[in-house]
Amino acid sequence: MAVVLPNEFNELQRFVEYWAAPTAQRRFEIRCESDMAAITEFYDSVLARGEDILRYLEKFPLANMPPQAELLFKLLLSLAHVAMAVEIHGEPRVPHSPYPNGLRITQGPIPLG
Amino acid sequence: MNFETSFTSRGGMTSEPVSVESYISPEYFELERKRLFGRCWLVIGRVEELPNETDYIVRDVEICKAQVLVSRGRHGKISCFHNVCSHRANRIVLERTGSASAFVCGYHKWTYSLDGSLRGIPDSPSFFGIDKRDCGLKRIATEVWNGFIFINLDENPISLKDYLGEFGELLEGIHLPFSSTPIVYSAILNANWKAVMDGFSESYHVGAIHPNTIGDSFVSKINPYGRAHDMQFGGPHHRAIIVGNPDYVLPENRRVETLASSHIENMALSTTGNTASGANADEIAKMMTHHSVNMSKANGWVNDLNMIFPNFHIDLSTGGFWTHQFWPLAPGRTRWEVRLYAPIALSVRERFMQEHFTARFAEIVVEDLANTERQQAAMESGAKPFMALGDTEALIRHNLIHVDKWVRAETVAEAMEI
Predict the structure, then answer these.
(1) Distance in angstroms (rounded) separating the CA atoms of residues B266 and A112
(2) What are the tens digits of pLDDT across the range A11-55?
(3) Nearest-CA distance from A76 to chain B in Å?
(4) Does A73 sit within 8 Å of B348, measured CB to CB?
(5) Distance, CA of B245 to CA of B219 (rounded, Å)
(6) CA distance A94 to A32
(7) B chain contacts of residue A76, beta-carbon cutoff 8 Å
(8) Could you give the ipTM of this predicted complex?
(9) Would you give the DSSP letter of residue A110?
(10) Interface test with B, best of A39, A47, A53, A107 (most B CBs within 10 A)
(11) Is B355 in contact with A81 (Cβ distance < 8 A)?
């Protein structure tokens, strides 16, 4: 059976398939390739639970989380990328920049880099 | 402004417009291949990338068509070789990184020791009495400075110490924190390598190109045009001391950034530059106490930009250090790499902050890279054969002067003359 989010974060389950990605590069790409409606819906929903998510995840060792927690962590990490679109650009990507743009995050921060 | 007191004049430079020829000319690029990248010391990696005996890495210097095999042999000594077999001149090592007790060419299994000597030839009697001692890997001059591995493709190079000169002495012994764990970005850009590097050599553009990503934390009422606080020139190398906006306050609408900074008491750590965490303050402090850091004691200091000629930046900031490297592929094509050296996060909050920093840095460089590609295309139109350079852009002028000196000099001694 596929891993699902911890019970108390049930309402975020609908974002998992699209937004929970294993690397910083993939999270960067997903955000770049999303439209503003999807970005805003994700941003509003996950940010509303942001502090709850951090408190929940703090119970586990960073490098060795149980699968459900790790899935939640991946969603949270995507929030960092989505914030670029919502809080900085007001559009999915840097204005006047071509996409794909050739930039790669070849190693993100550890873990889940 | 008064030219006599400018950085430009202090660097011994005049102020006239500069030709864009070196950014677009295939002939000039050929000279750079032979006389600049073929003769200068080049950073090829850091010692932490091959921590143990028998570790190796493989790196490319495309402009010289060279592939460099960096090997840590027995007793820890680092050597560099051309990754080319003595038999039929094929590639030997195909992995980018690894550990090996010997290097074996896949074509016919000629085998080399880690010190580059030829160890074995299958069916050696068929090679007409070949002397194995003449068939080692071709060695590349290698030296290590502050943990950076340098190579020189010239067969008789000057010493790295002489090449770095006073600049090398100034930065000697600096503690570079978190040097084992870089966050790495790379991009292939449609722009000349100098155009890409120029974008990271002046802060005049920050308010214009990065208004929402870092502009606010950088440009201030007292420094609206991003002037450098100070510049220093040492041979072909140079450095600038950069200040930010000391009055910057995180805007309220930056809600995710606020959440991602929830564990930091000193917000100055995360506003500009690299990212670290309070738990690693000692590591940063060790770097900051080095005499070269913020030498002019600038208020609102955010970073020292140190350029090691011709294509390497070491930036030191309140959050640690990062490096840029600009590798020419063709006159209008560059491989650019940046490494932000960051600690391994100890908590979920730190890790989340690092992701936010990583994401924001990507936006900043996308702004730069899109801008530089536009500039390259415009330069190639030939509409403007010359460009104007202001005093805040003195590092660009300084670099162009020295690149030109190297490509015109018959000998390295002539290129290094001040």
Answers:
(1) 26
(2) 999 999 999 999 999 999 999 999 999 999 999 999 999 999 999
(3) 8
(4) yes
(5) 6
(6) 9
(7) 352
(8) 0.98
(9) S
(10) A107
(11) yes
